[in-house]
Amino acid sequence: MDLAADGRLDAAEWVRLLDPGGALVGVATIGVWVLATAPARGQGPQPTIKAAPIFANGMAQVVPAFQDSAQWIQQELWVETNFDSDHDGKPDRVHVDVTRPRQTETEGLKVSILYGASPYYAGTARGQVNWNVQQELNDQPQPRGLMTNPAYQATRSRISNALVNEWVPRGFAVVHSEQPGTGRSQGCPTVGDVPERMPMKFVVDWLNGRAKGYTTKTGIYGTDYVQRALIAAIGLGANRPEDAIYPTSTKSKDRVLARAYRGSENYVLTFPKDQMPPVRGFWSITMYNDKYFFVENPLNRYSISARQDLKANPDGSVDIYIQNKSPGADKESNWLPAPKGPFALVLRLYWPKPDALNGTWTSPKPEKV
User: Fold this and answer.
1) Percent of the chain beyond pLDDT 90?
2) Any domain includes 185
3) Can you tell me the distance from the alpha carbon of 28 to that of 327, in angstroms, rounded to the nearest whole number?
């Protein structure tokens, strides 16, 4: 084995070391070469080497450990933005899919991401009729045909396969998102303004842990061991989404900022007329303190739902008062008592309708008053 002057292996030697029949094996990490020698006979089993991307002559190579597409982790979610392009009173959410190597869960592998965003993933670019550019000056152009109308696919979970088969076997994750108002993303299609330019920023923020993602896959874990561990830590287990979903809120809507709930402040959650949580069973909102325990209160009320005979406003909307002190006797039917300190809210939807599962309906956010 020959090392370069700076102690690194050249590409040819690196490829030889990866030969399963060789005496040495190599693992590449970002900017670092790590070598492990094979044990001599009788010295115990060979140490397990974790899978990692391989580069030769500056090009990513297919890695056998990443090749089996049946082992890839595929996720679907919606990422919330801070704009409302269709003016329905709720922030738009963009539809996102993720495909990544299994080792990102089982071995803690960190990978680079290839991300594509487009308004055309939902079929809007297929079979379109464009002008014939072979046109003589001053001649009458040929008639242009009709544009196609792509069918809406309400259950479509995969946005695109572009780049997936080429790059996941090389140890990359591939992410796609649909622009607002296309595919299963919420909102209204626009040209050139914030809703067209900014959705990618929110997806990148989500990938880096800075934005909120929305998923209805609770209770269906597959190889998503992080989600399985999270649910085990906070609730032991969870129903499948067809049986129940559990949107959780720890921050209020406060103009452009979201602030953590505190019992020293008063909040109102307003369900517009005919916009109550869409369920075939029932829904409820439960109050928890910052340790996720129930909150002692004078009404002995720990959750609120339609079963409490909520009073509606003259316009048909329903206000839920979330605060530490009573909002007044005439409003106590709609009062969810809060502690004096930090708290969290969990909205439970039992036997949810499709609108709740596909992101068409989203819960309004409590606002500080």
Assistant:
1) 40
2) yes
3) 62
